[in-house]
Amino acid sequence: MEAFKTDLNYRVLTIFAPVLILAGVLGFVLPDGPMSSAPAYNIFHIVFGALGGVLVLVRRMHSIRTFNLAFGLIDLYQALASFLGLFPQEYFRWKTADDVLHVVIGAALVAVGLAGRRDWRG
C-alpha cells in the first residue's frame, strides 16, 4: 500500500483532480477571467476532475496512469483544436491562457503517464 504514495502518477492525479474540479467551479463563479468560462468547458473540468478523484480513491494504478496519459493527450488536442478551429472550439471558447496551459499541462501529463510504472495491476 505504501507504493501508492510514492507513485508519480498517483501523486500527480491526487493534486490534479481537485484542481480540475476547482477550475470548473471557478469558471462558473468568475466568468470574466483570463480563462474560458464556457459552461460546457466548466462541466468538462468538473466531470473529469471527479473521475480522476474516483480513480485516486479506488487506487486503480493502471487506470490512474492511463487517465494521466489520455488527459494529457486531450489537453494537447485542445490546444491544437483552438489553433485550427476544430471541435469543440465553439462550445469551449478557449482563450490564449487556456491554450498555454493545455500545452504545458498536456505535455507534463503525457510525460508522467509514459514515465510511470508499468508493472501495476488493477
Describe it.
The chain has 122 residues and is an all-alpha fold. Helices cover 78% and strands 0% of the residues. It is built from six helices and no strands. The mean pLDDT is 93.
Q: Which characteristics define this entry?
A:
mainly alpha, 122 residues, 6 helices
**Shape verdict:** globular
Quickly give the structural class: mainly alpha
Q: Alpha-carbon distance between the termini?
A: 13 Å
Please state the CA-atom Rg, rounded to the nearest Å.
15 Å
Strand segment tally: 0
Weakly predicted, low-confidence segments: none
Oligomeric form = single chain
What amount of the residues lies in strands?
A: under 5%
Q: DSSP helix count?
A: 6
| Amount of helix | over 70%
* Overall structural domain count: 1
Please describe the biggest sheet, giving its number of strands, its sense, and whether it closes into a barrel: none
Element pattern in H and E: HHHHHH
Average pLDDT metric? 93
Task: Give a quick precis of the structure.
By secondary structure, the protein is mostly helical. Helices cover 78% and strands 0% of the residues. It has one domain.
